[in-house]
Amino acid sequence: MPSPLLELGHVSKSFGGNHVLQDVNFTIAKGEIVGLLGPNGSGKSTLLNLVTGFGAIDGGRVTFDGQNIGTLPAHRIVSAGIGRTFQLPSMPRKMSVMEVAMAASTSHHGVLSTIFGSAGARRAEAAAHAKATVLLEQLLLTHVRDLPSSALSGGQKKLLGIVCALMSDPRLLMLDEPTAGVHPNLRRDIVQSLQKLNRQGMTLVIVEHDMHFIREVCTRCIVLDRGRIVASCQPDELASNEHVVQAYLGSVDKREPAEAA
Ligand SMILES: Nc1ncnc2c1ncn2[C@@H]1O[C@H](COP(=O)(O)OP(=O)(O)OP(=O)(O)O)[C@@H](O)[C@H]1O
Question: What confidence tens digit (pLDDT) does each residue in 205-244 have?
């Protein structure tokens, strides 16, 4: 069996006395599209934050492609090959869509462009522009590339968030509620874009509440409840998984309806 791309071992996180994640263990294999599910407040975003360096783990281990990334800062985790989007994308309002995408490129912040001065910087900028052009096209934002980012709809901002995450060529992309509040047409575009990225070799972890989306896109689901993993199963097994039902609906009454009445 190939070694996992992402591996979490005994990860824990508390905020004060609130034990938000407890003994979280899972692996993600290359090529999977994993849905990270759970009721509100179960710890999904916190988990994404810890893996991507937007918070420090209290205990345990996070390994990406064999490298311990549990203590790395966010920019080093991007360099290692993990990209992410945010539940509520925030971007400089006055910058154009193209500028926002280009600013997410990691190549033009490199040492080489500093050493080789303006010629190197110009080459890096041209490369970032070319890459942003392709990604904006792929995520259906070409027609708005010159508008200020503040002019985008909520759904388009989510697409731009994906573009920004892809500018660093991640091997693993983690998305926080990519379709929340998105119009069905745009939702379909997001689904198709993610499926295409996966066909191109990208591994995806997606926090999402939309069960239609989960069934359509994900190859496996990991379910959190109050900071603990309670299930890892196929999307079509969710409804019959006792732990999942319990997480979402509370205790499961196994008696026949007549008995329970
Ligand atoms: N920076 C923080 N400081 C204190 N508590 C926090 C912080 N971040 C998250 N929490 C707490 O951690 C718990 C889990 O929050 P988290 O946002 O990870 O849940 P979630 O599963 O993503 O929820 P939702 O589906 O509503 O987005 C909540 O009780 C939240 O209040």
Answer: 999 988 889 999 999 999 999 999 999 999 999 989 999 9
Pick the CATH number of 76-184 from 3.30.1450.10, 3.20.20.70, 3.40.50.2020, 3.40.50.300: 3.40.50.300
Give the number of the atom of ligand 1 that is nearest the alpha carbon of residue 43. 18
Buried b vs exposed e over 120-143: b needs ≥16 C-beta within 10 Å? Answer: beeebbeebeebbeebbebbebee
Nearest Cα residue to 224 out of 63, 46, 105: 46
State the distance from the centre of ligand 1 to the C-alpha of 119, rounded, in angstroms. 46
The best mutation among 13, 18, 86, 226 to test binding of ligand 1, ranked by most ligand atoms within 8 Å of the C-beta, falls on: 18
- CA distance linking residue 182 with residue 132, whole number of Å: 23
Per-domain residue ranges of the chain: 1-24+59-65, 76-184, 213-255
- Lowest-confidence region among 44-48, 72-76, 84-88: 84-88
**Residues with beta carbon inside 6 Å of ligand 1?**
15, 18, 20, 38, 40-46
Residue 142 pLDDT greater than 80, yes or no: yes
pLDDT, one tens digit per residue, over 29-59 is 999 999 999 999 999 999 999 999 999 999 9
